[in-house]
Design goal:
With 383 residues, the protein is of the alpha/beta class. The protein has two domains: 194 residues, 3-Layer(aba) Sandwich (Rossmann fold); 175 residues, Glycogen Phosphorylase B (Rossmann fold, 3-Layer(aba) Sandwich). 36% of the residues lie in helices and 20% in strands. The chain is built from 13 helices and 20 strands. Helix 1 crosses helix 13 and helix 9 packs across helix 12. The longest helix has 16 residues. The protein is globular. The model has no long low-confidence stretch (mean pLDDT 93).
């Protein structure tokens, strides 16, 4: 009999959400390995005021959605899935996102039924400057009163190494590292563009197109004001922002003729088309976990310029596979420097591609399946 896995996350498609991307990737990998998988999420479409249907099959994975009965802040939603939990009767329960009510409820229900229960944290520990004082205070209260709950999960999965010190402060001595991995389509696409010889990527030395991109959620946490300011400061270069609206309103608009803003979802083919003609990819985020789009941009040989936050410091070695800056002014200065030194940056682009290949979905899936198989032989109580 196939083992059952229940994955619980706050959002699902069509929400633009890295947590959902990882939850779906885990579900697909587990299903391919022979597990029976079901996902529980809310019916909320993130930052749109819209709602999805109660049930849907997404890329072969059954998704059951629930209506929240209370919401606090941007993402903290209270929703009840106890009856559906009992009906499915999973062997494994896998919650995504620390400090959220659904993860705590998953832990309680799993412990009551003596089920194995895992938590993927999604790195919510950096000191985010754009987070309100009230929400920072709530984070502190949660960690003080409920941080000990981390020790009750069968195992906690972190997506970055930098989380370790925070988890240890909360009393968790051990956790497992399974990074976010990008879909193999990104790896296959770059290998078509740039041949690999003796495990070395051959990046063409060609003239730049003077095209600069941001692609991803149009969310205030992405701090896209930096891109707007860079475009205004550098009228000789062409900038483009592309992504699904997710919190920004009318304030996100072009103030320069050299900046185009496209407020709509994009797919992988759109991404490949844009990154094929662009030279530089900007990630000025105020907060992140481990952003898929940054790894995707690296995988295509883009020059990635990011803000100086913990996730990027783990992903980027400044000047080696990308660049890290501290302000919009520094970002504009770095863009100018990159173009002045373009022919000298072949090595940076090569190392960017290798970083993307290293962080592939295949690699993270292998780790996930090995992780689950290590628990397969341990007994689980049946109802």
């Amino acid at each position: 009999m196939n083992k059952k896995v229940l994955i619980i996350a706050p959002y699902s498609y069509p929400s633009a959400c890295g947590v959902w991307t990882r939850a779906l990737a885990d579900a697909k990998a587990l299903k391919a390995a022979g597990y029976t998988v079901l996902i529980f999420t809310t019916n909320v479409i993130k930052r749109t005021g819209k709602f999805s249907s109660d049930h849907e099959v997404i890329e072969g994975i059954e998704v059951k959605r629930f209506k929240p009965f209370f919401k606090f802040g941007e993402n903290a939603m209270f929703w009840w899935f106890g009856k559906s939990f009992r009906d499915f009767n999973p062997d494994f329960v896998h919650a995504h996102l620390y400090r959220h009510p659904h993860s705590l409820l998953a832990l309680i229900l799993a412990k009551r039924k003596e089920k194995k229960v895992f938590l993927t944290t999604h790195a919510p520990f950096d000191k985010f400057e754009d987070r309100s004082v009230i929400l920072k205070f709530i984070d502190t209260l949660y960690d003080f009163f409920l941080g000990w709950s981390l020790r009750l999960y069968t195992k906690v999965i972190r997506i970055t190494d930098w989380e370790t010190k925070y988890l240890k402060k909360l009393g968790l001595k051990e956790s497992v590292l399974i990074e976010n991995g990008i879909a193999m389509e990104f790896i296959n696409n770059v290998k078509k563009r740039y041949p690999m010889e003796s495990n070395e990527i051959k990046v063409n030395i060609s003239n730049p197109n003077y095209q600069i991109r941001y692609m991803g959620r149009l969310d205030p946490s992405k701090r896209l004001e930096w891109v707007i300011e860079c475009a205004k400061a550098l009228p000789e270069y062409n900038f483009k922002i592309v992504g699904a609206p997710s919190g920004y309103g009318d304030e996100l608009k072009s103030k320069s003729p050299n900046l185009t803003i496209v407020k709509e979802r994009y797919n992988k083919e759109d991404f490949f088309r844009e990154t094929a003609i662009a030279d530089i990819f900007l990630m000025p985020s105020a907060r992140e976990g481990l952003p898929f789009v940054a790894i995707e941009a690296l995988s295509q040989g883009m020059i990635l310029i990011t803000s100086d936050i913990m996730p990027f410091r783990e992903l980027i070695v400044d000047g080696v596979n990308g660049f890290i800056v501290n302000s919009s002014q520094e970002m504009a200065e770095k863009i100018t420097w990159v173009y002045k030194n373009w022919e000298k940056l072949v090595s940076v682009r090569q190392k960017a591609i290798l970083t993307g290949i290293k962080n592939s979905e295949d690699e993270s899936n292998k780790k996930l399946i090995v992780f689950y198989k290590s628990f397969d032989e341990r007994p689980t109580k049946r109802l």
